[in-house]
Structures are given as C-alpha cells and as structure tokens.
Input
Amino acid sequence: MGLLEYMHHSNQQWTMLGQGNDPSSFGLDLKSSTDLHTTFMSPWYDADHATLHNIPVTFKQKTEYCIPSVRPIQQVTEKMSLDSLFVMFYANPRDALQELAARELYKRQWRFHKNLQLWLCKESGTDLVGQSATCERGSYHFFDPTTWNSFQKEYTVMYDALEIRDNEWYQQ
Output
C-alpha cells in the first residue's frame, strides 16, 4: 500500500521513487565498454555545476591506503604465534585459511584429535610412558577453544582418533 501511495503522489519526485527511472535518462551509457564508475557519479550529478562544488570527476585512491608490499599469508604463517594460528583455524571454518593454519600447526607437531575435537601436542622433553602399534601414552598439551587455554595432561592417544597427515604421527 505504501508503494502505491508513492506511485500516485502529486509530487513527481515521490512518484519517481515508486516507479523507478530508466538509467539512461541520467546520462548512464549501459552499452559503454568502459567502467561505469568513471563516467557516472550519481543520478543527481550535474556536470555544469560540478566545478562550483569541487566535485571530483574521477576517483583516485589516496596513496596512504595503498600497501605496496604485503606478503601472501602463506609466507607469514610460519612466524605466527600459536594463538594466532588457533584464531585462524577456528575463525575460518571450511576455508583455505583454516587449511593453512592446520598445515602450520602440523609442522609444529600439533595434531587434531577427531573425537575430542581438540588440538594436542607431545610435551617437549618428556618420554612416552607406553607405546604400541595402535596407541601411545604420555604427557600432552591440549588446546581447548571453548576456554581458549592450553592445558597439560597425561593421556593415551589412539592413533586412529587423530587426523594424521602423511600417515605419520610425528616426523622427528
């Protein structure tokens, strides 16, 4: 009902809001092969008065917004802290960034436990308490994303519960 009120209003500007206009009536050439943003500022732009209002005809990006030498994130992950890698992993589900974070965590000897849905890593400088063909027991660091803390715990790791890359538990 509100749209009909605009379409049948006595004020032509209000009527224009309800019915719409042909873009070519604003001077917009839809068949042009050039970028439209360089030739069309707005429907209310008046080329005759542009110099009076100091309206720039073309857009130029300010140099302070240009960042000339940003390295690709693939080259930066190796220098990221563990917290940054975990943020990258958990904040980007099913994304290439999540995969990059996972690869770097694997390089740092972290493994993802599929059942617990937690990352874990062997405690450095400690020996395994026990080991078999299917599991090992030892001291591990776990990262819990719900509390955003890591904790140490003696745990028996079943190899088939881990998401393993290259069919190895650790490459040492």
Summary: The chain has five helices and six strands. The beta strands are 110-113, 118-122, 130-131, 135-144, 149-158, 162-163. The longest strand covers residues 135-144.
